[in-house]
Amino acid sequence: MTSTPVAIIGAGPAGLLLGQLLAKAGVDNVIIERQSPEYVLGRIRAGVLEQITVDALSSVGVDARMHQEGLPHHGFDLLFKGQRHRIDLADLTGGKQVMVYGQTEVTKDLMHARAAAGLQTVYSAGDVAIHDFDTDKPRVTYTQDGQTHTLNARFIAGCDGFHGVCRASVPPNAIQQFEKVYPFGWLGVLADVPPVSDELIYANTQRGFALCSMRSPTRSRYYLQCPMSDSVAQWSDDAFWAELKNRLDPQAAEQLVTGASIEKSIAPLRSFVAEPMRFGSLMLAGDAAHIVPPTGAKGLNLAVSDVLYLANAFERYFKEKDVGGVDGYSEQALARVWKAERFSWWFTSLMHQFPELGSFNQKVQEAELEYLIHSRAASTSLAENYVGLPL
Ligand code: FAS
Ligand code: PHB
What we know:
Largest sheet: 8 strands, mixed
Distance between the termini: 38 Å
Helix content: 25-40%
Bound molecules: arabino-flavin-adenine dinucleotide, P-hydroxybenzoic acid
Structural class: alpha+beta
Number of domains: 2
CATH architecture of the largest domain: 3-Layer(bba) Sandwich
């Protein structure tokens, strides 16, 4: 049986970043992860980092490769009715930008930093369970190498994602869940081909939404709105590229470089929030507490703001015995979560096809897009949400 001040469940970006922030504050911690490091790194997810995420990684000294390989972006294109219109993020937000740098790379950098710091991470942990988190002596049990292990802690940080064990362990009468499931998914393709444009293109077309993103000047990431009934097997690379071309403007369709996919997956889209985000000695952070449709590129960045608040709360507790941060964590995190939920829902509703809502919805979407590109006030609102609202 071992003990640690903070037991972190989940070695995704939330858990790993929290671990680094706590270590920097002198608060020891152990991460328990059910998958292998390879499995965690094999998941292809986010691509756009807000400045708060860049700054958080810099604050724990995990930013060198991001600044070398990451791509600062100062704008993106909205494509509708066959025309592209640039949203100038820098001009609209007084010089702010986003960083294009894949979540896989962020996770890799955090993993290496944690290992270099000699912090304990238990990978491939089986039957992870949390206990007594309604007391000040919670504990985690898990199996490894045929043995059952117990980890005592003062707090448990549930950073175990949407399908994790932490939120699921909270008594149903102690938690409120708000959810909206969208009637479509995103078919994503990663390919070692140069991006079709220097910046991202978000397309609203009558055939469905499309997003042109990237990971580097030689690696592209594309998404197509698709029915949830679709399977990856139905989508050959040729079929994917042909449909993407159908959803692009003529110039982009002409310039599109296609190639073999190195990853292809369909992700469901949902908006979800669990309230509160604290249950006694259990604190939820990141996807364990909330999910956004990826349209607004908020998921990973919300996980970061959660753990920034949480690390500060734990530092106040362990260094000054001040419970104010811990007691205020849920309300503080949820205030930012709900603003990002609103933006992600709004941008998803604006850019995707909803056939069940009829042609009126398409016309209203086009009217809002026209208003957006001609109103500085409207495009400023889009831009300041996209680059990330203040902490
Ligand atoms: P994660 O889900 O990343 O990590 C949770 C970790 O906990 C995982 O490693 C998991 O193995 C582990 N775990 C689960 N159960 C456990 C248990 N019982 N015991 C121990 N460990 C356990 N966001 C964007 O901003 N842009 C995007 O384009 C984007 N695309 C996405 C595509 C997909 C398919 C998905 C699922 C999400 C996407 N997201 C995107 C959101 C995503 O980036 C998340 O916001 C981000 O991974 C959140 O990080 P974590 O909260 O650490 O959760
Ligand atoms: C990505 O590159 O994976 C990405 C970028 C922007 C989004 C969603 C996904 O809004």
